[in-house]
Amino acid sequence: MTDTPATAGTPTRKRSTGARRARAVFIVDGSRAPFLKSGAKPGVFAAADLAIGCARPLLARQPFEADAFDEVVLGCVMPGPDEANIARVVALRLGCGKHVPAWTVQRNCASGMQALDSAAHDIAAGRADLVLAGGTEAMSRAPVLLNDAMVAWLGEFYAAKTVGRKLATFGRLRPNYLKPVIALLRGLNDPIVGLSMGQTAENLAHRFGIDRAEMDSFALRSHQRLAHAQDNGLLQEIEPLYDYKGRFYVADNGVRRDTDMEQLGRLKPVFDRPFGNVTAGNSAQVTDGAAMLILASEAAVKQHNLSVLGRIVDSEWAGLEPAQMGLGPVHASTPLLKRNKLKLDDVDYWEINEAFAAQVLACLAAWEDKQYCKDELGLARPLGTVDQDRLNVDGGGVSLGHPVGASGARIVLHLLRVMERNAAQRGIATLCIGGGQGGAMLLERAA
Questions:
Q1: 420 to 20, 24, 130, 413, 416: CA distances (angstroms)
Q2: Which of 54, 96, 109, 363 is catalytic?
Q3: pLDDT digits (tens, 9 = 90+) for 241-257
């Protein structure tokens, strides 16, 4: 049983950042790259290559030229050294032309959704009519940095003007100066609370009594659903990628078709040894990928005679305790539902990004928990139950990966495709965000 959100007392979040759109915002088309699991060395594609690889065929099938866009907005957390303002790099390489402005956004795991939301705001406000937006990330190419001691030593070495001074400086070089800073590992730790993202997932598992078997069962189902989607051609939004050696990549390669509960059960905890339950098997994979979408106003839809996948009805961003960051979808989706006078059951399909199996399960548990809904969400009663048959129906981050800049755009695009093939009307895409935030987007399919 679900109820329309009802306030009781003062919720922890006192204001809404969401807003009804002044002008309708439509998503007319989209595509994504296959998500490629990271290995021990940098991946084949840079972040810009991934975005361009999926955007070129997307633009090729449109009835307008690339320079018709009013702007390009791209989410990316860790662009490479040759990708400063990566949105501009991508726009120019796509042939959008020098007169089309482009800008990059970063909201950790929700960067791709932030790009869509930023584009939607510009369309709603009348500042744009046609926007290319999405997200990209080459996590395998996350930078490896020099530590501060080494940087200081290099500064001193290059400042030395004579051979003698350089030799003296060289003599002060110490082995520990060479210890690298792995940006990816640093980025997956919250500097405010001193916890890794996996440790925050352990917090949620403990809080809601989620055990290892539940996590592994959720992970197994994610892989099974992705395998089923691949076998039945349900991921039509994927565009093949071609590298410079003529090799091609056509599918998400992180799926483990032969895994089972026994194999998952043998994996050791990663973040809370030896007592934890969050493992590599029930966590999102480190992956490279991109997703790009075309957003349009009603005027642009009519001008170019565009078909429409759906409409962005509303969006919401929320903040919460960083140590509980995985509950971000709860804090973003709940006010979104309330503002639009919806119950959980009114949502036909959900995409909740799978950062960790424990994190998604905790979100579902929070909505069913009377005390949590009262104390943290300001509700008089539990919000209710999400039907898991309508949640991440083709798998999620655990099976296909979570390239942080791209996932927010991917779940929006895929949700629209799921709604299309099932003739559904309404969906919510939502995800947690490192640092203690949540984002959610309410979508409706075009009639």
A1: 23, 19, 22, 11, 6
A2: 109
A3: 999 899 999 999 999 99
